[in-house]
Amino acid sequence: MAATAYQTVEPGQADYALIGQQNDAFRKGLPEGGEGIIVQTTAIDDMGPSYVAACLAQIVAYDDFTEDNDPHGTREMGFMEIMGRKVWFKIDLYDENYKYGTSAPTDLSKTRRVLTILFPSDY
User: Fold this and answer.
1) Exposed, middle or buried: residue 4 (CB in 10 Å: 0-12, 13-18, 19+)?
2) How far is CA 96 from CA 100, 101, 110, in A?
3) How is the beta sheet containing 35-40 ordered, strand by strand?
4) What 3-state class would DSSP assign to 80?
């Protein structure tokens, strides 16, 4: 993915609370989260299937959002430790073709989510 391809929600662009609800639903695999994909970096993948499964389980259960790590309430990034290693996840909002950032972040018919699992060193 090109660094410029995803949409970062800027102040005033959208209903942050709704985006946060949609991101939570997407992480949990609920229909209210819309369509999207989950990917992981090669470094995460190289840890093996049980590690990836542990990452996914913690991402689904993650609820450690605070004013410091989620100032807008969009719930788009999380930080955790899995088997002694720091892991991050990041949700980016794309258009229907996964080519550009979405122009309508709260419209599930026009927005696709990509959740990336990574080590901080992958960023």
Assistant:
1) exposed
2) 9, 9, 6
3) 35-40, 112-118, 85-94, 77-82
4) strand
pTM of the model: 0.87
Nearest to 114, CA basis, from 35, 44, 56, 3: 35
How far is residue 75 CA from its own chain's centroid? 8
What is the C-alpha end-to-end distance of the chain, expressed in Å?
12
Q: Which of 97, 120, 90, 72 has the alpha carbon at shortest distance from 112?
A: 97
Written as tens digits, the pLDDT of the chain (123 aa) is 333 344 454 545 569 999 999 999 999 999 999 999 999 999 999 999 999 999 999 999 999 999 999 999 999 999 999 999 999 999 999 999 999 999 999 999 999 999 999 999 998
